[in-house]
Structures are given as C-alpha cells and as structure tokens.
Amino acid sequence: METTVAKTGLEYKLDRATTFVAIAMSIYHLIACNINLFQAGQHINLHIVFALVIVFLQAVKIREGRPTWQGWCMIGLLGASIAVGAYIHFNYENFMTALGAQPFDKVFSGVCILLIILIATQRTWGWVIPIISVIALLYGYFGPYLPGPLFHGGLSFSRLITYVTTNFDGVYGMLSSVSANTIILFTIFGGLMDAFGAIGAIMNVAMAASTKIRSGGAQVAVLSSGLIGSITGSVAANITLTGAVSIPLMKKRGYPAEFAAACEATASTGGAILPPVMNAAAFIIASWTGIPYITLVLVGVTPAVLYYLGIALSVYIKACKLGDEKVRDETLGQFHAAFLNLLVFIIPVIVLVVLMVMGESANKSLFLAICCLALVGLIQQFVTKEKEPLKAFVKKLFAGFENGGRTVASIAVVMACMGVVVQMMTATGLSSKISQFALAIAGDNMLILAFVVALTCTLFGMGMPSASAYILAALLGAPALTAFGVPVVVAHFFVFYFAEMSALTPPVAIGCLVAAGLAKADFFKTCMISLRLGIVGFVLPFLFLYRPELLLQGTALQWAWAVLMVVAFLFCFIIFCEGFFRTRTTVLERIIAGAGALCCVLPFYALDFVGLGLFAVVMVSQSIRFKKEQGLQVAR
Fold it and tell me: What is the pTM of this model?
C-alpha cells in the first residue's frame, strides 16, 4: 500500500509540474504575441525549451515509487534542456554577430540542443523522423564523397552543426517560427474550446442529428470527426476521442466492424484538411509561399466539403443497403437544444475569420479570438448557473492553457527536428535535384509527373505525423510541380492532400490502425474500405491540376462546373462500389456507373458530357426500377 501511495505521489508531482510548465508556456506566448519581450531567435529558443521540458516530464517512467533508469535519463535531459537553452538564450547576441565563425561554445551548444531535440522527437513520435534528420545531416557532411547527382561540396562538422542550430536556422528556422508564433495560439484556442465544452457540444449535436436522418448512427462519425478534427488537427487523437462513441454505435446499428472503423478513420483523417486549422499546414504553406493565410483557408473549403460529402454519401447508401433507419433513442438530446449550445462556440470562430478577412495578422486575429472565447466561457458559467462561476471559469481557463501547452509541445519538437531536414535539403540543393529527376522521368507528361509526386508523398508520409509528412512532401514534390508550370497554391495543395491521405494507406495507415483497434476489426480490410470511402481525397489532388477551379483558380461558372463533375463522380463511383442506390443495381447499371465515374475525372472536356449522361442514365434507371418494386410490394 505504501509503495502505491509513494508511486502515486511522485507521478502526481510530475503531472503537476507538467501542468505548471504548460500553463506558463501558454501565458508567455499570449503575452509575447502582443509585446516583443525578446529577439525572434530567443523567443523561438524559449518556445523549444518549454516544449522539451514538457516532453521529458511526460516521458519520466516511475516504478515502485522511483524513476527507472530511463526516467533518470529523462530527468537528466530535462535539466540539460534548460541549461543549454539558457546558455543559447543569454549568448544570442554573440552567436548572431559570429555567423561566419564557429567558436567552440557555439558548436558545442549546437550539438547539445540538436541531440536533445532528436531524443525528444524519438520519445514523442518514434524513430522515423529522427532517422530522416540524421540521414539529412550525414548527407550534408559526406556530400563530397557521393557519386553523380548526389554530389555536393559538403559542410565541415562545425559548419554543419551551426548551420542547423546556433546560426538560428534549421532547428530555429521557419518551421519553429510558425510553431512559436501561430500554432501555439491555435492549440491554446483548441484547448480552451475543449475546456469550455465545445467538443462535448459537437458530440451532442452529432448524436442528436443522428435521429434526424437515415444512416444517422454512422453520420455521427462523419460530423463529429470533421468538426472536432478541425480543432485538434490530430488523426489518432481524433479517432480515439470520437471513435469511442461512434464505432460502438455503428456496430450496434448493424454495420460491419471494418466499415465502422474505416468510416471513423476516413472522417478523422479529413479533419486535418478542414479549414480553418488544416493541421497547421495552412500556416506552413503561408510562410513558405507568402500566400495570405485567409486565402489558403478559403481555397481549402471546397475540396474539404467535397471530401466529407463523399464519405457522407457512401455512408448513406450503405445504410440504405443495410436497411438502417433513423436512430430512435429517447435518451438522446433534442437537436435544437444541442445546436444552440454549440452555437455560442461558433462566435469566436466567426471573429477569427472576420479579422483574417479584414487583413489582420494571424497572431492578432488568434489572440482576439482567444479573448472572445474566454469571454464566451465566462458568460457561459453564469448562464449555466455554476455554483461558483468565477472559480469554475478560472479552472477551465487554466485547463485550456494546460491543454494548449501540452498539445503544442510535441508539435514544437517535431517542427524543430524537421527544420534540420529542410535546412539540409535547401543547403545541398537536394530538393531541386529530386525535382529535376522527377521532371526527367515525366518528360512532357504532367499526369506521369503527378503520379511520381503522389507516390513520393505517400511513401514518405507513411508513419509520420501529418505536419511532418506535408513538410517532407512539399520539399520533395512541390518544386517539381511548380517547375512544370503548376501554380504554387495548386502544387502545395496537391502534396498536402497526399501527405494527409498517407494516414489511410497501408502498410502503415496509422488512422486505420487506431480505428481497427477500437472496433476490433481486421486491419487490412479496414484499410481497403477506408481507401474506398476516402477515394475523393486521392482523386481531388489530380483534379486540382486539371480543374484548378476547385481551388478558386477560375471564374464562378468554372468552379460550379468542376464541383458538379466531382459530385457526379462520387455518385457513380459509390454506386459502382456498393452495387446499390435506391435499389440493388443490375450488372449493366453497375458497369454504366463505373464508366461514368471514369469519364467524370479523366482530363478531357468532351468526356464531361459523357460522364454526366451516364450518371443520368443510372439515376433514371434506378428511379424506374425502384417505383416498379414499390408498386409490386403494394400489390402484394
């Protein structure tokens, strides 16, 4: 009993310490986004140190009331993070004035912070990203000894280290700047949304909506995963949060376990492409390309809506095929009341979007949206008649700050680690060499180039967190597309979508893996169904190239025509896969639907009309056959 108490006591202290650091991190960044407390490099360094402390505090393992040897290592690394971070912070001016030199302390502190970040990334995200970073460093050093196109002048050890660390590039470069100045504010915003009850309100709306439409039990996953995913931006966390409710509900309604898991995985993956957050990719694209953030958000709306339309339509037709009706459960809340409860949380989002449209910076817009959300949370405590409203508000406010700090910690370390890869690929010219290689393979055929880039993005995105997958995909694929003449925004959305869809592609398919575990379903079958449900996520990137109007790169009429063709494709493809629409399809109807789907996506304008015609034939045929079957049933 004493051992248990001691163990609980030490774990409690570690958890409290993590909470304190996470809250302090959030408060510091809220102040720093309005007041320049430090130089830009110092600010980023402090952001990374906060993140490292949180990561290592969470990584301490306790056994029988004491840290294990690994736990002591984590504590040592925690202390080293603070010591090295403090040294870099107070020597910032010296390091910046010695950009061309590599004094011992500058190199040594760079080695220390680099090793610490690699270890922290491994503890948080596994081995893949640290290994890629180490390979990038080795490539930077051994360039003079490599053959053919891989050859480059190389960097000495001291130059290599300072280049990615204490010259305040690489680890402290653009990616960490985005994390320290923008992503942290979004995680605070999301943390406060959760603390004040927005995520619970979303689940209540989704559950209440399930009583309104056929297939409602499965649409819970689609609606809740999309809305919550747009806040959290994490596929695995989204599945764990919403899948605990949606998967058992779907299985109870008669859906196969694999379909339930696939529906949840596909819907949760889409949360990362849904504006306004878009899993931090929108901020990275904005920093990389100079395109305003609000423009990227507006550009991302149409494909995201089409993605979810595809899933919802698949689920609806599957429900009709299985005979699933509306959910009838008196214990579920009324939709009107649930929606009104959610409506108050839409106000801060509206404030955020309006400020962005007015041209305010992302930082200022986010800060004011956070203030608006805090005000909404304060009023809510009085409206709901909490016993001690002010005390309840402060408790939830700090819970939101804690959630935001804990969430951004893992993002900050992976951004710092990926900064090494970005810096090395830029310095050595590897990204441009890969682009030239892809262009050489493709020749004058953009479709071949698109397939090469898509395959590269999918392969390198496997097993990686979404933001890192996008960064690597953008380095490897986007330059080749832009060199071919593809507009910058189209090229980045192409690689962004394929990087995100890697969460559904076997053999790794992290989204399917988590969902299949929750549903106790077969992993491979779940992957196959997920690929079918999320087909539009794999087709849309190619359509971006041939129908850029989907990304608002044309007139309103062109946009409407492109959307129509995607919707027609979705209907035809889903009918072809399910063999059902209003009634079971005949072999001929199924063939016509498959041909119609193909015609709708092939890059030939004349085939658009053929595809629409075949789509109309299937619709009419199904309607006639359905009415006949209904008439026969009535006659009986």
Answer: 0.83
Distance (Å, rounded) from C-alpha 6 to C-alpha 11?
9
Who contacts 132 (Cβ-Cβ below 8 Å, separation ≥6)?
421, 472
Are residues 18 and 54 in contact, defined by beta-carbon separation less than 8 angstroms?
yes
Q: What is the dihedral of CA 198, 201, 205, 206, to 10 degrees?
A: 70
Q: Which residue has the tokens 């505090």?
A: 57
Instruction: Please spell the DSSP secondary structure of 594-629, one letter per residue.
Output: HHHHHHHHSS-HHHHHHHHHHHHHHHHHHHHHHHHH
- Nearest 5°: the CA angle 236, 356, 485 is 75
Residue 48's pLDDT is 96
Counting residues of the chain whose pLDDT is more than 70, the rounded percentage is: 92
Q: Which of 126-130, 149-153, 490-494 has the highest mean pLDDT?
A: 490-494
Backbone CA torsion sign across 340, 345, 347, 350: negative
State whether residue 63 is helix, strand or coil: strand
Compare 464 and 543 and report the one with higher pLDDT.
543
How far is Cα 478 from Cα 597, in angstroms, rounded to an integer? 28
201: helix, coil or strand?
A: helix
SS3 100: coil
Cβ count within 10 A of residue 155: 22
Within 8 A by CB and 6+ apart from 596, the residues are 568, 569, 572, 610, 611, 612, 613, 614, 615, 617, 618
In 10 A of CB 429, how many CB atoms?
A: 14
Q: Residue 557 above 90 pLDDT?
A: yes
Instruction: Name residue 405's amino acid.
Output: G
DSSP-based three-state secondary structure for 505: coil
Helices 293-322 & 556-578 angle (0-180, nearest 10): 30
Residue 585 contacts by C-beta under 8 Å, 6 or more apart in sequence?
575, 579, 593, 618, 622
Partners of residue 67 on adjacent β-strands:
62
How many other C-beta atoms are found inside a 10 Å radius of the C-beta of residue 248?
14
Q: Give the CA distances from residue 176 to residues 91, 161, 169, 259, in Å, rounded to whole numbers and listed in that order.
A: 19, 17, 9, 39
Q: What percent of the chain has pLDDT over 90?
A: 38
